[in-house]
Write a structure and sequence with these properties.
Layout: E1 2-5, H1 11-24, E2 28-31, H2 44-57, E3 60-62, E4 71-74, E5 81-86, H3 93-100, E6 111-117, H4 127-140, E7 144-151, E8 160-167, E9 174-176, E10 182-192, H5 200-212, E11 220-228, E12 235-243, E13 247-253, H6 260-276, H7 283-288, H8 290-296, E14 298-302, H9 307-318, E15 324-328, E16 331-335
Parallel strand pairs: 1-2, 5-6, 9-14, 10-11
Antiparallel strand pairs: 2-4, 3-4, 6-8, 7-8, 10-12, 12-13, 14-16, 15-16
Length: 336
Amino acid sequence: MRTIDGGDGGGQVLRSALSLAAVRGEPVRVENVRGDRPNPGLKHQHLAGLSAIATVCDATVEGDDLGSETVVFDPGEPEPGCYAVDVGTAGAVTLVFETLLPLSATLDGPLSVTATGGTDVAWSPALDYYERVRLPLARRAGLHAALETDRRGFYPEGGGEATLHVAPGDPRPLSLTGRGELRCVRVRSVASADLADADVAARQATAATDALRGAVAAPVRERTVTTVDARSTGSAVLVVLDYEDTVAGFDALGEPGRPAEDVAEAAVDDAVAFHRGRGTVDAHAGDQLVLPLALGGGRGRLPRVTDHVETNVAVAQGFGYDVSLDERDGGVRLSG
């Protein structure tokens, strides 16, 4: 049984360890779960991901309790079908999906998992980013999945719902050594219905479009404004840079007292900074690509090394995968 130390990372260490154990069909013991966090151990979000993958794989699990700092996971074969999991809080449904996405590498039939919780919340990929950036890159690596959105859920009550549809895939090398010309920019803005009178969704989109004009030499080809019913007040904006050979995304969340224009500016600033650099994937996509690169090989260039990338690389190496980070030529190469 492999043992993974989760003391130097957050929930991502657990998610990646569970995913790789399921794909390889071997047990894993994760100790010191979220050990470097102020409140270590499993939270609702992590427990939901553990429960979902354990059910899909008919796994034997020890330590599947709130606050548990040690988890033992012994998976069986992933079983296609339709499943549901409720985070129970505004914990991110996209992080639940991250645990399940790598199963594409070993499934022999379609899998659908509906998760209820937060869809656009802090410290996690927002739903539009997941659909427009994360999944397209995963599909290029041979992991096949699509997203279906039913309801949005913002902090603190959550209540959003989305379904990840995973199909059998065939991991293959992912080549992201160059990005090519910037073809276009896409802006997606969403806000809860109680912000409609303040026109928050439209203001975010307009501010982002105006700020991009002249900052990048490419047209804004898509500008989507959506108002949604949600249990909690919230908003989000996403800026997507579509290059010839890659895609990168930058989002920002609304907060009480934060003008819509400031939310848009934050996303645009990140997008422009990336465009002026040499990365082929954004920093958040970088750590998410560690497992696809471990399973199928390939390489990409990151704008910088993050703690999440380093800890995820360490997990992959702990399972025997040849994944590495190499700082050279003013950038960071991630190789598998």
